[in-house]
Amino acid sequence: MSTPISPRSRRRVLHPVARTATSLFVVGAVAAAGCVGAVGATATPVAHAAYTSVPAAGLSVAATVTIDGAQYPNPLRMLDGTGVTDVARWEGTRRAELLAAFRENVYGQPLPKPTKQTFDVRTSDDGDVTLKKVTIGITGPEGTGKFTLRLFVPTGKTPRGTFLMIDHRGSVSDDPGQSSDYAPVSTITKAGYAFAQIDANDIAPDDSGSYRSKMINLFHPSGSDLPDDAGRAVAAWAWGASRAMDYLQTDKDIDPSKIAVIGHSRSGKAALWAGAQDPRFAAVISNNSGSTGAKLARRGDGGVGAETVSRVNSSFPYWFPKTYQAYGNKVDELPVDQHELMGLVAPRKLVIASADDDSNADPEGEFLAYEAASEIYALYGLGDNGLGTTGWKPTTDTAFSGPAMSYHLRSGGHGLKAADWNIYLKGDLFTQASPR
């Protein structure tokens, strides 16, 4: 039995129960349990209102939902078979179940928190923008290393928010006046935001022969193979974003409650994983992230030759653990899929961006995952994903935004462009979402 989520309809879907329910009820305000991420950060409990029809407590629900005619795991079904009926069940049980499943089967177990962490801050000022170049020292059981965080802060007042980029291109210099489509630092600061960057290669080099050499080997003996379920490069990049967040929480020139993590392509995969695990991020932006990012795994190549689980693991065997590689030709056996990963960001802001001509990332697969993730957001009364009755494919270069979710399909090919940043800078990403 499965619940259809039609690409032609955005109405709230009721999950069918496996035995007769005598009533349905409306869930009112529920005190949210604290969420503990992989990095040990605990979110402050907040009272959320959840308005959704649900099966009576304790009733079993279907194991799958139907997305675009195919079967996918039901994010609102707990391991004991019963349904998630409110925020307390989601945050108290189901969220942890899904995190554990993603760690074991997709991204790998994260690196632990350092045994010692230091911040060495060097500051320069050009009058309009202050650059803080932070050397983050990391000590693990196998040694000590470091990586750099750059933080550009407009002078004069507290920024409207901070964008933390996981940058696999290493394209950001110390110049506050620099600008590019990919990292328009001066445009961001002139708009009143701060911009922070970490170079993914300083954390785990994007190379099969050396990806362990920076941070991973501080926690695993260099002469031994990694455990099959240990995170590789992508998990390390996500971990690095949380270590950068550790510093950003201490900087008095920015608001620590208004920080978004952003990544493009491979870094977009890491940004989603970082945001799913670490509830300190107020917003999560995944740009053209494709396979093992925003794209549904079970879609295969999506009929457009997109990157599949098998292909991404074959091309980049150092990105993900061996436990994930085992699913290359049997993705239907994965216990999770990417709509559930997006749901782990709830109730915080989620932004998914696709590109019209980016067939390798399967933009329709990203769209469908985003659409299905709204079922989790609905627990918080935030199920409006901005799409209304819009089906695939939506109008290009238009932001479809609800109170907590936003999607856009940019015209053109793979890339992080000025048009994307224009949407992000105008996206109201740093105010707490509330039901409309």
Describe the structure using short key phrases:
17 strands; 436 residues; ten-stranded mixed β-sheet; three-stranded mixed β-sheet; single chain; alpha/beta; 22% strand
Task: Describe the structure concisely.
The chain is of the alpha/beta class and 436 residues long.
Characterization of the model:
The protein is α/β, with parallel strands linked by helices and 436 residues long. The chain has helices at 87-107, 185-190, 233-248, 266-277, 309-315, 322-325, 338-343, 363-377, 418-425; strands spanning 2-5, 24-26, 29-31, 47-49, 53-55, 64-67, 70-73, 116-125, 129-140, 143-154, 162-167, 194-199, 259-264, 283-287, 349-355, 400-401, 405-410. It has a 10-stranded mixed beta sheet, with helices on both faces. A 3-stranded mixed beta sheet has the order 1-6-7, covered by helices on one side. β6 and β7 form a beta hairpin. α3 (233-248) crosses α4. The radius of gyration is 21 Å and the shape is globular. The protein starts with a strand and ends in an 11-residue tail after the last helix.
Give the overall average pLDDT: 89
- What gyration radius follows from the Cα positions, in whole Å? 21 Å
How do the strands line up in the largest sheet? 8-9-10-12-11-13-14-15-17-16
- Topology as a string of helices (H) and strands (E): EEEEEEEHEEEEHEHEHEHHHEHEEH
**What fraction of residues sit in β-strands?**
15-25%
State the secondary-structure class: alpha/beta
Major beta-sheet overview: 10 strands, mixed
Domain 4-O-methyl-glucuronoyl methylesterase-like: 185-381
Keywords: Hydrolase, Serine esterase, Signal
Organism: Pseudonocardia tropica
Protein name: Acetylxylan esterase
